[in-house]
Amino acid sequence: MQGGLQNSLYFCIDLIKFIRKYNAMNLAAAPISALPFAALADPTRQRIVEMLAEGALCSGDIAGRFALSAPAISQHLKTLKAARLVRVRAEAQKRIYELDPDGVAGLADWLAHIRSFWNPRLDALEVALKKEKP
């Protein structure tokens, strides 16, 4: 019985490692337009982007607004930077984070592209629904 439980535990650990590796590979292989959405899937990162929309902040100020450890916030900032949603500059010993205009513009461009497909369809749906009303 002990061996079966131990084998099950090892299987679960291997499965978790595989899932983490698979998710990391999918994120790395995703088209550039998917990276910001993957980064923004986390509510903490959404809040960080909203905070930075009001102006640049140092990493300590960002971390101070969360009940998370500084290393955890650092990982979130790293993910946002990899997605090109934020950029960082050094000022003395501080790291100042701000929104990356190019990355945000890329996200906005992608959304505009998607809207260009949906707006005519939604307009046609509205017309069809109005025709069906008695």
Structural features, described:
With 134 residues, the protein is mainly α. It has 6 helices and 3 strands, in the order αααβααββα. It has a 3-stranded antiparallel sheet with strand order 1-3-2. The radius of gyration is 22 Å and the shape is elongated. It starts with a helix and ends with a helix.
CATH architecture field of the largest domain: Orthogonal Bundle
- What is the H level of CATH, i.e. the homologous superfamily of the largest domain? Winged helix-like DNA-binding domain superfamily/Winged helix DNA-binding domain
| Overall pLDDT score | 81
Distance between the termini: 70 Å
Could you tell me the strand content as a percent range?
Answer: 5-15%
Considering DSSP H and I runs of 4 or more, what fraction of the residues is helical?
A: over 70%
Low-confidence stretches: none
Biggest sheet layout = 3 strands, antiparallel
